[in-house]
Design a protein that fits this description.
Structural class: mainly alpha
Oligomer: single chain
Shape: globular
CATH architecture of the largest domain: Orthogonal Bundle
Order of helices and strands: HHHHHHHHHHHHHH
Number of helices: 14
Radius of gyration: 25 Å
CATH topology of the largest domain: MetI-like fold
Distance between the termini: 46 Å
CATH class of the largest domain: Mainly Alpha
Number of strands: 0
Strand content: under 5%
Largest sheet: none
Length: 285
């Protein structure tokens, strides 16, 4: 009887836990689900009140119309902007984190403390001085002006890689150094292949941040040649009154989903690499 009562309470607790989890998942996913549903509706279905949750028929024309606004050039600009930031920040952050973790020199702890300061500063504090420096250097409406000032914000990445590399086995580094390997060889042939988990995590966060960045591309690269997806998508919100005229909300929903697709794909790729890297580190021991 005692065991039966115990298993009954456990089953009831699990049922309650799973029910709450499913309800919270539906609640958090509802805006995305409605966005998908609205992107497949006709205009009269999106505008009715109370709103409809499901389209009466699938209308793929919304995506065709959205691609006329979110052109291939806009997505190419977004990829150049995002990957430019990601690759340069990754190189700087990883090498700086390695130097702080494994290359002994004076005042290393002080430098680590200085790197921690920008992490706690809001972006709005530095955006105006950053814009003025970019303007003085004549980099407005250029790829260098859009990418290089953001690349300088490497404090978080440097601390992330430094924290990972502090726990990296010193024996591997010392053995390579004793065999005559220089620091670059140790970095790229010993440390880099085993640092896939933090690289995957940092790449996912940086790609998401760069792709969704709006204020800086709007200020520095607000031209047709440099316009990124977020800048092109913003005028469509609220009925589409903006640079493109009156865009229906169902087409706006489709444009938003098209703009979010690269982020979702990249995040799934980075997540897979992160999991495989963790599994790989455990299988060789």
């Amino acid at each position: 009887m005692a065991n039966t009562a115990f298993f009954t309470r456990r089953r009831n607790a699990n049922t309650l836990r799973y029910t709450i989890t499913v309800l919270l998942a539906v609640l958090f996913m509802f805006p995305l689900l409605y966005l998908v549903s609205g992107s497949l509706m006709k205009l009269e279905e999106v505008s009715v009140y109370p709103p409809k949750l499901f389209p009466s028929s699938i209308n793929w024309q919304n995506y065709v119309d959205a691609l006329e606004v979110m052109t291939g050039r806009i997505f190419l600009n977004s990829f150049i902007f995002t990957f430019g930031i990601l690759i340069l920040q990754l190189i700087i952050s990883f090498t700086a984190g390695f130097a702080l973790a494994k290359m002994p020199f004076k005042r290393a702890a002080l430098i680590v403390g200085l790197f921690a300061v920008p992490v706690f500063l809001p972006t709005n504090v530095s955006i105006i001085p950053l814009y003025l420096v970019t303007y003085k250097l004549g980099l407005l409406n250029t790829w260098g002006g859009m990418i290089l000032p953001i690349v300088g914000s490497t404090a978080f990445g440097t601390l992330l890689f430094r924290q990972f590399l502090v726990n990296f086995p010193d024996g591997l580094v010392d053995a390579a150094r004793m065999d005559g390997a220089g620091w670059p060889r140790v970095l790229f042939q010993i440390v880099l292949p085993l640092a896939r988990p933090p690289i995957a995590s940092y790449s996912a966060v940086t790609f998401l941040t760069g792709w969704n960045m709006y204020i800086w591309p709007l200020m520095v690269g607000n031209t047709e040649e440099l316009k990124v997806a977020t800048v092109a998508l913003a005028p469509l919100v609220g009925g589409g009154l903006g640079f493109y005229g009156n865009i229906p909300p169902n087409v706006t929903y489709a444009a938003a989903l098209i703009s979010a697709a690269p982020v979702i794909i990249f995040f799934l790729w980075a997540q897979r690499g992160f999991i495989n890297a963790i599994a790989g580190t455990g299988s060789d021991s």
